[in-house]
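Sat 14:20. Reprocessing the chain from the morning session after the first attempt stalled halfway. Input below, unchanged.
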Amino acid sequence: MQQITPKQLKKYLESATNPPMLLDVREPWEFQTCHIEGAVHMPMGQIPTTYKQLDPTRQIVVVCHHGMRSQQVAQFLEKAGFKNVVNLTGGVDAWAREVDPQMPTY
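Finished this time. Tokens:
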């Protein structure tokens, strides 16, 4: 499974002509508290019934709080045939610490 650090993702998002989809799999209250701009919210518990709405040809960076749930979702998507799935290591918590110190944390 591919992994990307917050700093690598920030640099990639700034330079990509075709940026990846940011898939935030946290609970609604978590997403409302903070999220990376442009992220699509799809809670982890809904993934088994909603993942077919995602484009399997598009690169997807999966995001959660610390990177554990997103890794599980990324593995699920890979098993479902998605070829270009990446896990954000450290999740939004690491994003807030390393990239966006103004982002609320919890």
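The two ends are 27 Å apart (CA to CA).
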